[in-house]
């Protein structure tokens, strides 16, 4: 396989996951959409169903305005617009995980407007540490699993779960390797390929995704030294499908060296230690958490500072969707902690799927010049 083949495949899937869904449906393979990375994909996969991440790509919001206020996040409004337009009509079901109030509202509104659809919500706790949250999460996971078993008409097989966990752990290892090789080969592995590869992994059967990643990564020398010329930027936020920030960082002589995003490192961090329902549940509670979850007041702060030091980050960009309350609440304390370590920061608010103005280019160029 040529490197260009991988780049073409990843670009195609990450920019148009609907075609990937339709291709699976033509093969008569069941597909569930899921709205949050806290949905335990391994269990869905082990039941013979392909989980595909829903991110919202509607360019204009019209019909969804009847269901959501204009100050709701654009990811939810974009998704609702696409569901009303029938973009994802071929899905066999839609899965939610409780994170923010807007996503919970989305679940309730979707369920009311599509009463015949298979819709489930997994209510993971907001507090993640300790026995009580784990026991609650495990009970929720089992309740969720039971509904999927009823949908398929068969129980979960321990062998199937073991195979699924193996495939998902391998995918996490390969994405980690991709991030590492990007630091060595920023020219051959552009920054946007990190975003595209994670989204591809969220939209493709993991065995197929692993095959593509493995062949691409094997063409690089892992022993090569890291590129010391480019300034390293880290992104912090929730979800993102906009490639422009990544491209501009490269264009201005820097790179997106790492991130703390649901469409990035948070998705693949932390392996499942044992191939059981309990093991899968523990992984989702122990991974680096988003702003809608917490362990203690400073848990996200500690994680970000650790990642900044590990990757020798020169500057941090907070890349937020507008009206994202959990991340906006986190922002003042995180900014203070990061700048307290003499690492510059920049806040950029975006709308999902909406083209950015020239201000983004100006902000990125000024930020790269400042950290240089």
Biggest beta sheet attributes: 4 strands, parallel
* CATH fold description of the domain at 23-156: Rossmann fold
State the distance separating the first and last CA atoms.
37 Å
CATH architecture of the domain at 23-156: 3-Layer(aba) Sandwich
So what's the overall shape? globular
Secondary structural class: alpha/beta
Poorly predicted tracts of residues: none
Structure, described:
By secondary structure, this protein is an alpha/beta fold. The chain has a domain at 23-156: 3-Layer(aba) Sandwich (Rossmann fold), CATH 3.40.50.11890. The protein has 15 helices and 8 strands. Helix 5 (101-113) links the parallel strand 3 and strand 4 (119-122). The chain is globular, with a radius of gyration of 20 Å. It starts with a helix and ends with a helix.
Topology:
Layout: H1 3-15, H2 17-26, E1 31-34, H3 41-46, E2 50-53, H4 74-84, E3 93-97, H5 101-113, E4 119-122, H6 131-152, H7 158-184, H8 192-203, H9 206-217, E5 231-237, H10 244-251, E6 254-260, H11 265-268, H12 277-286, H13 299-310, E7 315-321, H14 325-339, E8 345-350, H15 358-371
Parallel strand pairs: 1-2, 1-3, 3-4, 5-6, 5-7, 7-8
What key attributes describe this structure?
single chain; 372 residues; alpha/beta; Rossmann fold; four-stranded parallel beta sheet; 15 helices; 8 strands; 51% helix
Briefly say what this structure is:
With 372 residues, the protein is α/β, with parallel strands linked by helices. The chain has helices at 3-15, 17-26, 41-46, 74-84, 101-113, 131-152, 158-184, 192-203, 206-217, 244-251, 265-268, 277-286, 299-310, 325-339, 358-371, and strands at 31-34, 50-53, 93-97, 119-122, 231-237, 254-260, 315-321, 345-350.
């Amino acid at each position: 396989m040529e490197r260009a083949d991988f780049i073409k495949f990843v670009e195609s899937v990450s920019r148009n996951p609907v075609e990937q869904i339709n291709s699976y449906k033509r093969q008569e393979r069941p597909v569930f959409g899921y709205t949050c990375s806290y949905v335990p994909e391994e269990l869905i996969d082990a039941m013979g169903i392909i989980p595909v991440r829903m991110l919202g790509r509607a360019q204009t919001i019209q019909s969804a305005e009847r269901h959501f206020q204009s100050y709701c996040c654009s990811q939810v409004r974009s998704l609702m617009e696409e569901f009303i337009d029938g973009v994802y009509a071929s899905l066999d079901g839609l899965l939610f995980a409780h994170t923010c109030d807007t996503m919970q509202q989305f679940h309730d509104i979707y369920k009311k407007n599509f009463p015949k659809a298979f819709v489930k919500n997994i209510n993971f706790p907001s507090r993640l540490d300790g026995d009580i949250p784990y026991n609650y999460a495990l009970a929720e996971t089992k309740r969720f699993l039971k509904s999927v078993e009823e949908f398929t008409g068969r129980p979960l097989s321990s062998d199937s779960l073991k195979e699924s966990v193996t495939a998902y752990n391998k995918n996490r290892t390969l994405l980690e390797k991709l991030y590492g090789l990007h630091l060595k080969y920023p020219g051959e592995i552009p920054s946007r390929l990190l975003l595209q590869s994670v989204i591809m992994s969220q939209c493709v059967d993991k065995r197929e995704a692993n095959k593509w990643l493995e062949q691409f990564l094997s063409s690089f020398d892992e022993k090569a030294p890291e590129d010391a010329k480019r300034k390293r930027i880290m992104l912090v936020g929730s979800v993102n499908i906009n490639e422009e920030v990544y491209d501009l960082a490269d264009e201005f002589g820097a790179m997106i060296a790492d991130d703390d995003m649901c469409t990035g490192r948070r998705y693949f961090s932390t392996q499942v230690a044992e191939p059981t329902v309990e093991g899968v549940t523990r992984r989702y509670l122990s991974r680096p958490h988003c702003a809608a979850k917490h362990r203690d007041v400073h848990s996200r702060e500690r994680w970000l500072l650790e990642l900044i030091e590990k990757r020798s980050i020169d500057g941090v960009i907070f890349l937020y969707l507008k009206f994202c309350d959990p991340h906006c609440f986190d922002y003042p304390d995180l900014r203070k902690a990061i700048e307290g370590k003499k690492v510059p920061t920049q806040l950029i608010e975006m709308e999902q799927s909406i083209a950015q103005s020239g201000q983004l280019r100006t902000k990125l160029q000024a930020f790269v010049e400042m950290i240089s």
